[in-house]
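Please check this record.
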Amino acid sequence: MNVRRYGLLFGLLLAPCPAWALCSSVATTPAAFGTVNSTLVRTTVQAASSSNSGLQCTGSLLSLLSSNDHFYATITPASGGLVGPTGDVINYTLYADNSVNYPITRGVAFDFARNGILDLLGLLNGPTPKAVPIYLRTQIGSNVAAGLYQETLTVAWSWNYCSGIGIGNICLGRDIGSGSKTLNVSLTVSNDCQITTPNISFASAPVVAGFGTVNQSLSVSCTKGSNYTVGLDDGQNVSGGRRRMKSTANNYLAYDIFKSAGVVRWGSVGAARRSSSDAEVNPGAGTGTGSQVFNYNAKVYTDQATPPAATYTDSVILDVQF
């Protein structure tokens, strides 16, 4: 009797090797708001970000994070803001993504594994190392002096997650670690002014002697603590040291603008300018929010011949120098 023996071939299907997604604490990238004028700092939210807040992961994180997986970031100091050269403070808020949906409370551990933030940041896919960014937005209302504003934060990361999945969603290993890095935040405030300048109207008169004196004022609201001067240029048609208005027929009517109620010409160079300490209302350095008022008077020169009847105009530029 012939006996045939058959061998049984046993096969074992192995799961592919997991992608190990090890994370590490790395040096941060500074967050800089750039240079912003004082008016915008006070009235408008400014945004900045750091492309690296101190955590970098190599490889692909798991697309399914369980309730046992965490990526905690604790940012200190617990209170503070950007401090400038005179002690003024610009407050700002930290966020986990580029929106206002995930604010980070200082001194409290924030879990980036929750709420799909890691998905939004793109850390769940791709083979290249990726860092966790962080976002910042200033709070409006900061009336501050010009200068460089800075703060150094400490970002303490702590992570614990399943870094590899086998058959049946069995965790093959966990990546557990922690580390702290400093993050520098800065914003430079530049000087700025808000200016209100009414037009000057001499009305009408049949002869030059018939034009009256116009008494008016202009207001300037400049950066807190700023000392400045205000100048008026010579207009578009100056001649012989006098400002002139011009008609469409190229005839001229000479006039000038004088400081306060006096006869000293208000100009744009040297002593002809007016300093912030010379204001009639709120003299001194700028306050950032309050206006400083400068009085002036304007007159048509009466020692000139009366030009032909027409409408005469000129344009004078006001400038502020710090």
